[in-house]
Design goal:
2 strands; mainly alpha; 17 helices
Length: about 400
């Protein structure tokens, strides 16, 4: 309510489209934007349902608050599967005070609800406390991840991570059970996507269903050396031109390995080590705020918040590395932690090739926050043991 973020760019286009649906105006479906990126219609339709309740941007932002609060709860429950309850609480609270997700609720992004659904699907898959059969577990998980993917196409990262987990567990679980489990999951996932996509086609809401009609575009941007893998207007000439896009991708890939490696390193820095609050504070340049009689520049406040966020991310990665190194030595560990670890590596691989923006790290940041709890647990447990050792030594 305090931060007045105006919808811009894709968010504005999708908001306008959601409002048009509610007055039965579907002319926008033939626009270049929705004809090319038809998969955006999932979120547009979901948003239109919310706007039917209250046609208010503030209402959408309040819904985002409930969604991200629920993500905090999910972080707690997923983390509790791999660490002591007290450390699951710590990582959940840590996420609460990360400025990026905290302030990003004011942005009408498709990332919020998508992340909630996908991580809810993950929780169902991972949890040892949910008393349901494996058959039901994989169906529910597949359905939730699929709905999350319909809102924003990131579910495939989780599906691929689960597939890699099953490959690792092949020897332990057995081929028959692995094939059966993954088939149930993948059939549920694609069945939901197929049905919903075809419903959009049949109703005329999206003639192309939920397809991405220009799959090469993200790779064109991701391999752009001038823009360091970010959006560049100069590349728009290849939009919806498959041959031109493939030729440009080929040209950008066929360079010296050193140049390609340099691009990958710069992109990784943007994605993993750069926080941006620019989407939230997109209209606050040169503005000030008065708190208790003192006037502060909004730009200075945002700069401080970005700096804080980056330091938190650095701490997060250090704790993650410490935790995973020591978790691997545990005898009775929950092997489903591999799904979360795989998500980190799959995301890393995917974003080396496609377009990057700092805000795209929203989804995987939830995983890294959970994994860092293992590092906190390791350090705290060792400190407790050290104190006991010193106490016993002094007593003796």
């Amino acid at each position: 309510m305090v931060i007045k973020t105006e919808p811009v760019s894709d968010f504005k286009i999708m908001l306008n489209a959601s409002r048009l649906i509610n007055i039965s105006d579907f002319s926008f479906v033939n626009s270049t934007y929705f004809a090319t990126w038809s998969y955006q219609m999932g979120f547009v339709f979901y948003q239109s349902l919310l706007l039917k309740i209250f046609d208010s941007v503030l209402f959408l932002k309040i819904i985002n608050c409930f969604i991200t609060s629920s993500i905090c709860v999910l972080i707690y429950y997923i983390a509790k599967e791999f660490m002591k309850e007290e450390y699951a609480r710590i990582v959940s609270l840590f996420y609460c005070f990360l400025f990026f997700p905290l302030t990003f609720v004011t942005v009408l992004s498709n990332q919020h609800f998508s992340a909630l659904l996908i991580y809810l699907g993950l929780f169902v898959l991972i949890s040892r406390k949910i008393g349901i059969s494996d058959f039901k577990r994989y169906i529910i998980s597949g359905v939730l991840i699929s709905f999350g993917n319909i809102i924003r196409p990131e579910g495939i990262i989780t599906i691929l991570s689960i597939f890699i987990y099953f490959l690792f567990m092949l020897k332990k679980i057995g081929l028959k059970k692995v094939v059966k489990s993954f088939l149930i999951l993948i059939v549920s996932y694609y069945a939901v996507f197929f049905v919903i996509s075809n419903l959009f086609i049949v109703t005329g809401l999206s003639p192309n269903g939920l397809k991405n009609n220009d799959p090469y575009w993200k790779f064109v941007l991701g391999l752009n050396y001038e823009s360091v893998g970010s959006y560049d207007d100069d590349d728009t000439y290849v939009l919806n031109d498959k041959d031109a896009a493939l030729e440009l991708i080929k040209e950008r890939v066929m360079v010296s390995p050193l140049k390609l490696l340099n691009l990958f390193l710069k992109k990784s820095n943007i994605f993993w080590n750069t926080s941006t609050l620019s989407w939230t504070f997109n209209d606050y340049d040169d503005k000030t705020i008065t708190i208790l009689g003192n006037t502060y520049s909004i730009n200075d406040i945002v700069s401080f918040m970005n700096d804080y966020n980056q330091k938190c991310m650095f701490i997060m990665y250090i704790l993650l590395i410490i935790g995973l190194f020591n978790y691997s030595k545990k005898k009775n560990k929950n092997m489903k932690i591999l799904i979360l670890i795989n998500q980190v590596f799959v995301t890393l691989g995917v974003y080396l090739l496609i377009e990057v923006q700092p805000r795209y790290a929203y989804f995987i940041q939830i995983t890294t926050v959970i994994l860092m709890g293992i590092g906190i647990e390791y350090i705290c447990d060792n400190l407790k043991n050290y104190r006991k050792f010193i106490k016993n030594k002094n007593y003796n």
